[in-house]
Amino acid sequence: MWIKRITVGIVLLLLLSIAGVTVYLGIILFGNYAIDEKDLVMKETTTVVDSSGEELTRLFSENRESVDLNEIPDHVQEAFIAVEDQRFYDHTGIDFRSIGRALYRDIITRSAAEGGSTITQQLAKNAFLSPEKSILRKTEEVLIALNLEHRYEKDEILEMYLNRIYFGHGAHGVQAASRLYFGKTVDELSIEEGAMLAALPKGPNLYSPFIDEERGKERRDLVLRLMNDQDYLSAEETVRLQGRTLPSERHSVSSNEAYDAYIDLLLLEMEEKHGLTEEEVLEGGYTIQAAMDEELQSQSYEKMSSDETYPVQAMEGSYVLLDNDSGGVLAVQGGRNYEKKGLNYASAKRQPGSTMKPIAVYAPALETGEYDPYTLLVDEELDYDGYSPGNMSGEYEGEISMYEAVKDSVNAPAVWLLNEIGVDESKAMLGKQNIALEEDGLSIALGGLDEGLTPLQMAAAYRTFANNGVYSDPYFVEKVYDRHGELISEAEPESEVVMTPQTAWYMTRMLEAVVTDGTGQAGTAPAPLAGKTGTTSEARDVWFAGWTPEVSGALWMGRGAEDDSGDISSALPTAVFKELLPASGSETAFEKPEGIEEMDEPVEMTAVDDLDADMKVGLFGANVELEWTGSGDSRIHYRIYMVEGDENSLIDEVVGQTNYTVSRANVFSGGEYVVVPYNPQTRQEGEPSNTASAEWNIFSRGS
Prior knowledge:
CATH superfamily of the largest domain: DD-peptidase/beta-lactamase superfamily
Protein name: Penicillin-binding protein
Structural class: alpha+beta
Family: In the N-terminal section; belongs to the glycosyltransferase 51 family.
Organism: Alkalicoccus saliphilus
GO cellular component, one term: outer membrane-bounded periplasmic space
Keywords: Carboxypeptidase, Cell membrane, Cell shape, Cell wall biogenesis/degradation, Glycosyltransferase, Hydrolase, Membrane, Multifunctional enzyme, Peptidoglycan synthesis, Protease, Transferase, Transmembrane, Transmembrane helix
Largest sheet: 5 strands, mixed
């Protein structure tokens, strides 16, 4: 009999063992089927920082920053364990004792004081399952929880849980919640702050202090009491901490609106140059080091979004500022009332007007070696196969130096010069600066384009002058680090030699004159500045583009074709551009690169109208002393002519002098004379002086 009982017992034991092993294997197999470890990789907030590592903003689809468990204080961990799963370190994924206790307390208190699901079960539910409530889903939750306990250590499970759970108001994970509710990182949380966060996952919309402060405090105090019950806090500590208030104002976790235009272009560059889509950026927990200067970005936002900046209600505006050394975008504004993902005027093409002249005409002409800043250009209203551009003033000089044409933005010489060097020469230089034009007409000289240029393109092209003739594409992203802090990508802009440093320097000097003496005088710059204004027909588009020793940029303002209200000019963007410039480290002037020639200041020609001739007779004959008042510029040549009937006969030429002696003159007829100033830069004569007659005076004798 006893043998039979032993046999039955052994059989039952074997059956139970087989059943246990079968169940265990079933759990493991189910886990292998149900658990995709990719689901445990959480969507994580990407942080944008400046070059010094200071945070600018955060980008996310779910606001989450993962942290290691060792960065979360013990008292914060204890708060969650106390309220969610006090036997967390003792059970194997499910806790029948806690389930029974939770049911009992819920019945007694008529509230959800404690949860029945373990922390592991909650992780299983949040990571792998849908929110539906059914026996099958609950069974799956239990099986997955058991499998998670088999695969991971307790601390790993707690870390995943604390980084995943939702705390309300868009905050996922304990780090994001800490920033949202308290404006600090999780390692800085006090005991009662950690308890408040632990109070939220059960019902973020119920217990948020921003929604219901009274209910939120009751829930927070419950967590503190449970911590006391489980010996994490003394009674005295508990009472003291329960008396503390809750936060009343949430801290910002979204992008500063002043950065919106910049961030949109940064995200586009992340995909085009660094191979990360916007979705990957918003969920990948990257750290992006941007070229932005926070102060310049914020200042430009305030100015470009202010109604006081725009004299016409329907006007729009855009601004781009680049670092001369690197080409990084320091600041960008995409519109007066820019909206995320909306039309970004910084990357929208507009007609450039006369800002096109330096990059499309004058720099290419200088680069040919056939022209210099004082070469005379034809200033006449000419017809080019039906294209007859005119000067805005309606006046023409016949000839004008390149320097004067640039300074005063005269149209006719620019078109004539482009016709002389050829459109292909112009387009070749523009092409090296990422400006590809389909047009082949001379209207390129005046910015008459089919589509136009963007402020980003314009700023980059003008930076070529500042960078001694070398172009590189502007960029927003300096470096990209993954969620583990490993550098995975960085800016590597390619450089292109567009023009010689000599050409770039000549352009700097001529465009400095635009600002000091020409069309760009509006406003006051805090630094040495070279640049060019631009205005299109009917002032639909007005520009200023330029550079200081440290930065280059472009500012565009304009209005729609259907709007004809108000009168605007390029003086407006010029003054605004100067107001937005940072102060320069170079207080006086641009620094000429070594090994190139300086551009002389223009010769100041003045008319001579006081020529005086005095004949003096001596023992050896008569001399005629000529005197006149000059301009004070010692570089001017003066040509001395004798008037002989309808023709003048050149006697001599002097440099910088304002007197001349005609030797051996006819004592009975000293003759008539004129002086003509001559500009050696332009190789051009000025107007003849008054005619002075030399007559013999018997009372005037030489010694």
